[in-house]
Amino acid sequence: MSELRLTDGQKSAIYERDKNIIVSAAAGSGKTMVLVNRVISIMVEEGIDIDKMIIVTFTNKSAQDMKDKIRAALEERAADFDPAFIKRQFRLLKLAQIKTLHSFCSDMLRENFYYMDNLSPNFKVMPDSTGKIFMADAIDEVFDREYEKMDEDFVYFLQNFSGERSDAKAKEIVLLTYQKIVGMIDGMAWLKDAKDRGDRLDYFKDFIEKKMDLILNSIENLGARLNPILPASAVNLIAGDYEVVASIRNQIDSWEKFAKAHKEKKYPTFGKKIKTEIDDDGLVYEIEAARKAYKEDVKEIESLITNTDPKALDFIKNREEILFDKLYKLTFDFKDSFDKKKAAKDYLDFNDLEHEFIKLLANETAREKLKTKYRYIFFDEYQDSNEIQNYIVDKLKGERNLFFVGDVKQSIYGFRRARPDLFIEKLESYEKDEDSMRVNLNENFRTDKLILDFNNYIFDRLMTKDTADIDYKKGGHRLNYGKEEKDLLDSARVGVKVLGPKVKEEVYLTKLIGDLLAEGYEYRDIAILLRNGTESYKYEEAFKKADIPYFNDISKVSTQASEVGFFINLLKYLTNPNDDLVLMAVLRSVIFDIDEDDLAKIKLSSDSYKFYEAFEDYDKEDALGEKINNFKALIEDLKDKLAILNLYDFANYLFEKSGLYDFILARDLAEDRINNIDSVIELMADYDASNDNGLYGFVNFFTNLEQTRSDSISPSRDLSEGEDLVRIMTVHKSKGLEFKIVILAGADKRFNKQVNPIIFDEKIGIGINVADYENKIKIPNINRKLIIEKSREDDKKEEMRILYVALTRAEERLYITGNFDKTSKASEKIYKNESYLKLNSHLEWILAALSFDNITSEFFTGIKKESAFDRRIGFDFIEEAYDLGENQNENLYDLLNEKANPDIYKEISTKLEFSYQGNEDIGKSLKKSVTELAKDFNKESEGYQSFDVEGFSQNISFKKPSFLEKEKTYSPTEKGSLIHKVFQKLPMKTYTEETLLDEIDRLIDKKIFDKTIKDLIDVDKLLSFYENDLIKELIEGKFSKRSEESFLMAYDGYYVNGQIDLIFEKDEEIILIDFKTDRIKREDAYKTQLAIYKEAIEEALGKKVSKSLIYWYNFKEFQII
Questions:
Q1: Which of 317-321, 549-553, 694-698 is predicted most confidently?
Q2: CA pair distance 83, 78, nearest whole angstrom
């Protein structure tokens, strides 16, 4: 075994004992190696089994990687262990608690459920899509109950938060509140305290005071830096500005005088005389930029204190109390309804796993049992932990048995409630606590020293205690070169490429990639990193035109994809054919080949101002008329199938019948696009299983779902050795990866400033807008102003950490690109501006930091000066870039008729004419339906025509197009499916003829069935089923009911699939019922089918079927099988 070469910090992290340890591990410093080797060294020294340790990881993929690394380390150090011990570890490793905290909580709850009052050991972790459906149902139920009461407080709540057309925004307020409280240890208690406490005027005054002090500090720092080189007049100018701001600051104890001082302020003038005395255009530019920045800061404070006078505060307070009380009640009711829905299905979501585990830990016996069992706790990526996870670890810890590893500079998952402040607190406390220690790992073994020097220059300035809560320069966070001097690369480069407004960044990147290839690099060496993936398509299109092979690692399963938009619009049209915008969006698609001229032609053919009426009335027998008739035929066919099929089967039918599947299959990225549609279809299936609201309900649900999209953090895919592709991915997906060449593209994209209608802060409280209907305005409460300022500051701190992750992925070369308008006022705002939290993009930060070196002197001032940077670090302003023309056209005729190379022709012919052995067995199916087995199914005997694949069958009959049929007809199979669906959708209860017809009308109103359903069913035949004594007994006996249960099982050498119509279940008894709509009652024909159903149910549920029955619909009779 080769001996590990370790730094002093790595040695301390691996071998230090009897202390709680936190390791601050910089990018590329080998933190995972350290954690794995500490685990192995403890096993060697103490003979502890791996299942006596908890190792928490951030993702399931990380957990598997950790297990693989521990297994490899055990194999490498096998000589250090007893053979029996090693074998036992390999066996235990499979089930060891090396996993995410959610998975650990799940395991512990199943193992210790008997300590809990109301927890089933058979609970299931709820799928995300099911959770969203349950939440949508629960919020609707809560509001329905409120509408029944319609008290004044609820009316005011709706008035304050709803939009003009719906209550969706008011519901969003409740859902956002719920999302906040479930991420807390006792969220409802916090919510009650926050509503009772109201606005925090004391916090607000402290906040304003600190902002004023920061402005004074910035003026003071400007003077301290420039006074030695300025004439007296310029020194007095800056001093005068300081006195103006200080005089305002001194009035802060009297709020009215403070506001008045803002209005009366008057700064000294930066006149021509002073500028002449300075006699340095660069210095004049710097002073002008600095003065503009701090004047804007003062103006911003003046804006913040608007509507904070006593009268405005009283107005807000009175209305706030009503809104907060109602919010608390609605949130409580929603949580209760949502919890009941989950409990009914034995579901727990991820939040429930954490909260239930907290309840388990409150039991002293259970807690001590777990603390005794697990000797050591390791927490990887601790910078991404949250409040609840930290609480759980704190409850589980023993005596000096904690080991945390992470890098606060890489905490980039704020949207998952990550709390980097918890990591910072531990860093500071562990340095002081004698039972604990902090270890810094700053040696980087990934990146060339040139790039490390550049990154240190940038983050020395960006990441300070004031701007990022991290003292990068003095707090033990700087990156040190960890490799040997001989490993330094002459080919290392850093390039900041600032592009003029007219330059298309994606086009410039094709040139940059071409230059890199010319130097000998491969496509696979290059990674394009983006802050978010919304515009990744631009780079795809440019790379396609330039024939650059690429792989886009950004998740394509998106509700915003064009194919999903078309699919949803088609669903919307089926639910509401009178929506002009939806109809035109569908028609205008490539699928139906109707262009803008055709749309205009349709509209001009009618006097109606409604497009859908003009479309319906168009009757010309021309090419457009033929397209319209084909479209109408498709829609009629889809409506017929919607009445018969469940949503899952209908969606699949629509996908293929509409031509969308074939169209996507012929496009680039076909697999990703098909996955997009499949994800929507799966969502439709989940929705249909939980609701009776049909397609109309799903369309409304999906519309609301689009508003709750979140970033994806699924792991990236590794390229195989044979794939030579440029990678495109988000910065989040690049975390933990490394590439020879990194291009941070789109660095000019502005930070997101969007703010939710309700916002929260655990210390401050709840922030909302309060409506003033008399003046037709909404006034933000004090808390909202505070939280917006704080959250925007926190967001920018996370953006700094995202930038750090991006810039530390590169091994050999780093490029940063983005557009910038050099002539804009932005230049003035950026130049030598150390107020980084006031800037709005990664590129602005980098330019501001670089403006303190002469590398950007010519860019900002027009004067070229010598830079202190290594010459391999470049800065370029690019005002023009060549555009990509169309791909070179090829003459297809010449290409096809070109004389073929005989060797290549022979090879292609051999491959195309190849036939596999056993070709005759290809038509045999491994899977059969119950019908095929039960009836010894023969296609010809059942009325199906065989088709000769080698030739043309003369016996095929073609069905008349639907639009030519005067009246829609149903085949016996279609009618049978429709009747089955009626039984499925009708609630299981006793009926009279009148109540049964009312229920069918309700299903028609919900768009589950068309009105023609009444012509296709016989009410007396339906009623006969519900009037049967056995069915009445089952209903009154409160048997649980399952309908349309699908199964797949091994049977007689095949995989058999089937769908069971109806199951009644109570205790250990199961009764099976199958509906038959045959015109001839063949009593023996279905015995095998029912026997297969019986076997499937007994195998799946572990209970005996006591009765199997057929209900012969057309004969109104039951048959016992």
A1: 317-321
A2: 8
